[in-house]
Amino acid sequence: MKALEDKIRAEGRALNADVLLVDSFLNHQIDVQLMKAVGEAFADHFNGKGITRIVTVESSGIAPAAMTALAMDLPLVVMKKQGSRILTDDVVQTTVQSFTKGTKYELTLKRHFIKPDDRVLLIDDFLASGEAAVGVHTLLSGLGVTLAGIGIVIEKAFQPGHQRLEAMGCDVYSLARVKRMDAGSIEFIED
Ligand code: 5GP
User: Distance between CA 26 and CA 24 in Å, rounded?
Assistant: First the structure.
């Protein structure tokens, strides 16, 4: 997606060869016009694939996932990163290793927000090692629910997430695929 790649080139900052900072438009300040276009691009790709529900992981996935849900006119469920005292009834959980924090969290979902016959589309901001997406896959398959697609805003293609998810049979679609990066430049895999 050209507008997204242009924005990453203009405002993204590689902290090192592994972590990309995009907090001026995706993770802290949010460019809602760009997120609207992101949602429409995911809708263009996933419409007609029988998706019934969008899922994301709090918090950076919420903006692109909400715009996708709007564009596809589907409900959105946000998976939590930990249980809380008010989230006690009927939850399913799995442990996920956080790429950016290096710590573990409990990916948490209230069972009744997902229906057994749902075909779910996961939307997330980044794909790195694939831990978060594998966690979502684990929770959904535990409920007998199909993960019908994964839409990623920025994939770091030099990290193993995409291959790992495809090996599990997942349909992964990324709007920007970073081939390599360093403090001075960011290179994309062109379609
Ligand atoms: P994974 O689970 O695929 O290893 O990592 C995905 C999650 O880690 C994303 O939801 C995102 O929040 C975070 N993440 C991974 N890599 C980056 C990165 O380079 N920059 C930022 N801002 N977040 C990242």
Answer: 6
